[in-house]
Design goal:
Length: about 375
Amino acid sequence: MIRYCALLLLGIFAALPARAFDTRARAAWVYDMTTDTVLLAKNADEQLPPASMSKLMTVNMLFEALRDGRVRLDEQFAVSSRAKSMGGSTMFLNETDRPTVEELIKGIVVLSGNDACVVVAEGLAGTEEDFAKKMNERAKALGLDHSTFANASGWPHPNQRMSMHDLGRVAERLIDEFPEYYGYFALTEYPYDGRSPDNRFNRNPLLHLGIGADGLKTGHTQESGYGLVGSAVQGGRRIVFAITGLTSERERAEEAERVVNWAFRDFVQKTVAPKGTRMAEADVWLGDARRVGLVTGEDLSLLLPSLAQDRLKANVVYTGPIEAPIAEGQKLAEMQIEVPGIPNVTVPLVAEKAVAKGGFTSRIRTAFGILATRVMAEIGS
């Protein structure tokens, strides 16, 4: 039977909601990586044209190939006539070039080179079509449930779609899984071979603002509008966000800065309960104790609205009574915490102490208790 236990977490600031944040973006996802907290989700799972922001998935595929030893940073790739013919943002590659993997990474991240993406796709999979198939397979394995790929560059195509949630998760993966390569995203310019000096600058408007921004990727097509996948670090906290559907470069820059300022200024990280804090108790079935404490298995740190002043509400949920034996530290329940202004937070709770299987006396006591409960129920009826 599922049991619920309502709690008030005293002494924890949270009664006042965070200041409402109404983004102008068509879709948005804002996530605090440090506390695993979604701060904003607006049409976040809607499949939309991602434009060049989908290049993050291409970069992920290349980083995985580097990690697996399939390619090296100094390895050279050939440039096909198809890659050379790509329009839009490019590195201005031609068929006589042999760019290294590192140069291609910079060409994609800084210059948003569509030609560089095709070179990578053909170098890793033979053709861009086969590379797109591998992207789809990898997306499925990574749980990117609202993404489909038809090409490596984000060139407009009906089957090139990603959600802001999925884009944010790819960004999170690039930061977490590939710290040795993530620094490329903070480069503000890359004058590849001195070609097109006016096209050497990173389009990410946040990199010059001194607000801790260090990535990731802009995007724009007529269909998608202007978008940005970004990340920033302040005071030991890192946020990742994805926005799209904005009407101009200026609006994109303004909205991205607003997102960063709101995420850091309107929330504060608090240690709510140290490891081992008893939050509730659960009934035990056929054990040498009738109840067991439910405690936090780790320090419980939450991201809370900075103007909060009162109490948090929480429900402890478990299936009980819980049959003995129970091991100390065994996960037994979940605590669902209501935080004003952001989605609810779920925290696992574990057994405070071990509970051994009861002996003959405890079994008799349990049986007698069940019998007594049934008798009283019959009398009451």
